[in-house]
Write a structure and sequence with these properties.
heterodimer, A: alpha+beta, Rossmann fold, Coagulation Factor XIII, Chain A, domain 1, seven-stranded mixed sheet, six-stranded mixed sheet, 8 helices, 20 strands, about 35% strand, B: mainly alpha, about 75% helix, globular
Chain lengths: ~400, ~270
């Protein structure tokens, strides 16, 4: 290890097991042994860097890129799968504030507990006690139980302990967001002071300006690799540009997906409207009124004829022609078919047209449409044509409801 | 050896965890810390009542005979059972902060140890009032056997604490195991009973089996010192020490290996 270096990280890799559905119990393990499969997720892949003594370095990168894992590895909370980490001097990490705080004990007692967790001896804590209390701005509250503190007071006390642990190497994870603006500024100044004393600092943060202000270098971690190391301002510019690009790409992707979904939907609707195996295909369906004239308006009680021309691609026999009459609000008003009306199944051998006459149309004033379907005996759909024809019925007498009935009065 | 230096640096953490545990134990109760003494005292009263009136034993002052062995046994039992969950109980700290993980089982065992020391005050008072008194020539061995037991308990705690993180059922298994072991240790009876039984059954290996139990020599020594007030056999003392050292070495080696994965198990 270079004697100018405080931290040397060489070729470390780390992966976590991500269980799809982890069951710890024997019952679960036996019943669902297949579910205990896991995926090995590589969080860090062959990372190397070194930090000089007295230098401050920032780790930047988007969520989940591996920067916090790096810090945890430096702290020795977890251990790398491969590679080595060397550090010289006492390490203090500010990953968790207020560790070991006991709510029933006073602030003063908790300072001892908390500071001891950072590896301070009683003598060392005694020497720092006044600094810690003063820094926390708790004043006389220091002798009250911690459970009576507001969350701001709690965090201030915790931070004061952490920041007053004199370490050779200080590791900080996203914690400069404690208390109000004044206290934050105070923390930041304290950090600068610590740095001026020659402490090596590694910060993980999304607050890039803070890193720029205090760090000589930034390390940009991207998907478990080190993307770039260098002057914070430059690195952050590149990082932000890349983030922006990613965001734009993501937005474009989302837009594309949306369009695809819409297209899919349109296709589905079109299929629903018209599909079949096309041995026979229905042409333009016409509605003819009692005078034999093509019309889209029929009067209640009059007759009408549906003319259904068709093209035969492959001759096919035993076809049932089904007709569904719907009112415009999707109410099925009448259903019939060649079989139901007694004609039976039809054979289609060459192009022709079907004429179906309905006497005495009983519908009253509204709009209607007809769905036509040609089906084989097995129910295979040869041609399904929804809304093949639309027409209006008007009741000259102004009757209402669904159907007209003959009625005589006495 | 590096670990000893590191643990020495973290001694204040051990002290403060022990302090927190001892003070927190009876927190919120009216009598507070006084319960530490009241609890064993009341227990002793019950024993006296039961074993002199309802179930008289042919052993003289049976309640004392039992009590001087039961107190060290309870320290052992709490070391094993609380020790097994010592890491699990502090997942937050283990996940977020660096400190030598050994601190947690050490603090748990030490807290049990200090508790036992306090209960020994009750034992001393009882010894004096019961007329047995305290003999200086034997009592000097008491600190030695206590330290030997501490080493053994810590060794076992290191093992069960690290294994329980990976195999959580162990904490419940240990509950039963410790209870069974109590009956297989000369706590409620004397070793001479075991020898008699072995002879009667014609199975001398039973005594050997008893001696394999690491707590057998320790309990025997406690009783020698406090009840019979005789100087313990030096061989028994050495045997206990060797067992303790074996456990603590195995414990630390295993713990050191397993602790690397602790933070990823929660």
């Amino acid at each position: 290890m270079d004697k100018d270096n405080a931290i040397e990280v060489r070729n470390i890799s780390k992966s976590f097991k991500v269980y799809y559905d982890k069951g710890n119990e024997l019952k679960e393990k036996m019943l669902f042994w297949k579910r205990n499969k896991y995926e090995k997720r590589v969080v860090l892949d062959d990372i190397s860097f070194s930090v000089k003594k007295g230098e401050a370095v920032g780790l930047v990168g988007k969520n989940g890129c591996g920067k916090s894992t790096t810090l945890k590895l430096l702290t020795k909370i977890i251990y790398p799968d491969k590679g080595t980490i060397e550090m010289s001097g006492r390490v203090s990490s500010l990953l968790e504030l207020g560790a070991g705080f006991h709510p029933d004990m006073s602030g003063r007692e908790n300072i001892y507990t908390n500071a001891s967790i950072f590896g301070l001896t009683k003598k060392e804590i005694d020497a720092r006690l006044n600094d810690i209390i003063e820094f926390s701005e708790l004043g006389t509250f220091i002798d009250n139980p911690v459970r009576t503190y507001s969350s701001g007071m709690y965090m201030r006390l915790a931070f004061s302990v952490a920041i007053n642990v004199d370490a050779d190497i200080l590791l900080i994870d996203e914690i400069l967001a404690v208390g109000d603006a004044n206290f934050q500024a105070k923390c930041f100044n304290k950090l600068r002071e610590i740095k001026a004393q020659g402490t090596t600092i590694v910060i993980v943060s999304h607050a890039l300006e803070q890193i720029e202000e205090i760090c000589e270098r930034s390390i940009w971690v991207r998907d478990g690799h080190i993307q770039q190391i260098g002057e914070p301002k430059e690195i952050h510019k590149a990082y932000l540009t890349a983030m922006e690009e990613e965001r734009r790409e993501q937005a474009a992707n989302e837009r594309k997906q949306l369009l695809e979904a819409e297209e899919e939907q349109a296709k589905r609707l079109a299929w629903e409207k018209r599909h079949g195996s096309w041995e026979v295909k229905i042409g333009d369906v016409k509605l003819v009124d009692k005078n034999g004239v093509e019309s889209s308006k029929i009067y209640t009680g009059e007759s009408m004829t549906l003319e259904i021309p068709y093209v035969v691609n492959t001759p096919i026999n035993d076809i049932e022609v089904k007709l569904d009459f719907y009112r415009i609000d999707s109410l099925l008003v009448y259903r019939t078919s060649s079989v139901l009306s007694g004609v039976g199944r039809l054979n289609f051998d060459k192009d022709n047209k079907l004429s179906i006459t309905f006497d005495n149309v009983p519908f009253v004033t509204s709009e209607y449409y007809v769905n036509i379907a040609l089906e084989t005996k097995d129910g295979d759909e040869v041609d399904v044509y929804k809304e093949a024809v639309k027409f209006i019925v008007e009741s000259a007498k102004g009757e209402g409801g669904v159907a007209s009935m003959n009625n005589s009065w006495k | 050896m590096k670990i000893i230096k590191e643990l020495y640096e973290y001694r204040e953490m051990i002290f403060s965890l022990v302090r927190k545990d001892l003070r927190g134990r009876y927190k919120g109760s009216v009598l507070g810390f006084f319960w530490t003494f009241l609890n064993p005292f009341l227990q002793l009263m019950v024993f006296t009542l039961v074993f002199s009136i309802i179930m008289p034993q042919d052993i003289d002052q049976y309640y004392l005979f039992l009590f001087v062995a039961l107190v060290p046994w309870m320290f052992f039992a709490s070391s094993v059972q609380d020790g097994s969950t010592s890491i699990l109980r502090e997942t937050n700290m283990v996940k977020k902060i660096f400190f030598p993980r050994e601190v947690l089982p050490i603090a748990t065992v030490t807290s049990g140890f200090v508790n036992m020391l306090l209960v020994f005050l009750v034992i001393f008072v009882t010894l004096i009032f019961s007329g047995r008194g305290i003999k200086l020539s034997t009592i000097v061995y008491l600190p030695i056997v206590m330290i030997v037991q501490y080493i053994l308990c810590l060794g076992i705690a290191l093992i069960v604490a690290s294994v329980t993180v990976y195999f959580r059922d162990l904490q419940y298994i240990l509950g039963i195991l410790v209870m069974a072991l109590q009956y297989m240790t000369p706590v409620m009876y004397d070793m001479s009973r075991v020898q008699d039984a072995a002879e009667k059954m014609g199975w001398p290996q039973m005594v050997t089996l008893y001696n394999l139990n690491p707590m057998t020599p320790i309990i025997t020594i406690y009783r020698n010192i406090l009840y019979y007030q005789t100087v313990p056999h030096i061989n028994t003392l050495i045997e206990a020490l060797v067992i303790g050292i074996v456990f603590i070495v195995i414990g630390e080696l295993l713990f050191k290996k397993l602790q690397k994965g602790f933070a990823e198990q929660f």
